[in-house]
Amino acid sequence: MGKEVERAKIAVMKANENNKVVMVSSGDPGVYGMAGIVLEIAAQEKTGIPIEILPGITAASAASALLGAPLISDFAVISLSDLLTPLEKIEKRLELASQADMSIVLYNPKSQDRIEPLTRAYEIMMKYINPDTPIGIVRQAGREGQTAKITTLKNLLNEEIDMVTTIVIGNSATKTVNEKMITARGYNITN
Amino acid sequence: MGKEVERAKIAVMKANENNKVVMVSSGDPGVYGMAGIVLEIAAQEKTGIPIEILPGITAASAASALLGAPLISDFAVISLSDLLTPLEKIEKRLELASQADMSIVLYNPKSQDRIEPLTRAYEIMMKYINPDTPIGIVRQAGREGQTAKITTLKNLLNEEIDMVTTIVIGNSATKTVNEKMITARGYNITN
């Protein structure tokens, strides 16, 4: 984590020395990306440098496009990384989001040393969400070697999941049709 | 609403007649966009046409970039349009999201004939969220004439809001610094 803070400090320092600086951040810099820490450091250093943030395509959108249209209605985005957020807070958000019948996107679901949050997320979601709800497991969304697989919530822990995996859990209106995850929005489509 | 269904039906029909068809949808087609209805119609018509979805930058990301970094941590995306989703369901999602201390993004907050959902959303959020929490009001995000304003939750109903407005409500870690909305992620940035 120290690396992000250090990168942001160097960028702000260089900009403060009258350089044009670009900080590159994958996905959308505003979603678990570098935009926040750069603004925080700039505020702390009381520099008056102008900072422009260019939005990007976040993993929720990239993964969703590969899976079909699982996020066509309301959804929650939750990171399972407990490095900066206490696990109890993550669990509370999962409890509430699961009861809201919103689709849920899980970022940073698991790393080699961090397995517990995903197990807890599974247990919490299984309390409130139908175990047969379609879920999508996407790796490297939008990058070379991207993969997408659709299964159901009850099988979540049997899947290969790591830090570059994005998990999309459907809501009660999500179906799998022609190998696509589709969350029905409620249109009347009969002829 | 009929127009979306009709557009999707025409697109699927044309594709089924061996044409290459592109359906254009603003923002991310997978977030309240045309991806869902096109997949639904294609499934209903039992066509085997291949459909590729290209993700885009959704209003949450575009608005967030103008405001600062309000969505750097977990957040919920909720549409206040009750045309396809019953108001009780929207209210329940707002109740739960407000208690989760996640940032919240409101899409389609209000139209000329639809004012009640925004009033209800305000009442619900004021029950659980500190009234001094920073919020951002963004119009035409990413388009010509875009505007962004930061105020606090308690002032929400005094703002000019319409269908092309996106509203971003911070969480308990969101501050306004140098006219930017920043949600602290928890980094230790002291020297």
At a glance:
Two copies of one chain form a homodimer. With 191 residues, chain A is an alpha/beta fold.
Map the helices and strands.
The structure is a homodimer of 191-residue chains.
Chain A: H1 2-16, H2 35-44, H3 59-67, E1 68-69, E2 75-79, H4 87-99, E3 103-107, H5 116-128, E4 134-139, E5 147-152, E6 165-169, E7 174-177, E8 180-183
Parallel strand pairs in A: 1-8, 2-3
Antiparallel strand pairs in A: 3-6, 4-5, 4-6, 7-8
Helix pairs in contact in A: 1-2, 4-5
Protein described:
Two copies of one chain form a homodimer. By secondary structure, chain A is an alpha/beta fold. Chain A is 31% helix and 19% strand. Chain A contains five helices and eight strands. Chain A has helices at 2-16, 35-44, 59-67, 87-99, 116-128, and strands spanning 68-69, 75-79, 103-107, 134-139, 147-152, 165-169, 174-177, 180-183. In chain A, a hairpin with a 2-residue loop joins strand 7 (174-177) and strand 8 (180-183). The termini of chain A are far apart. The relative contact order of chain A is 0.15. The mean pLDDT of chain A is 95. At the A-B interface, helix 1, helix 2, helix 3, strand 1 and strand 2 of A face helix 2, helix 3, strand 1, strand 2 and helix 4 of B.
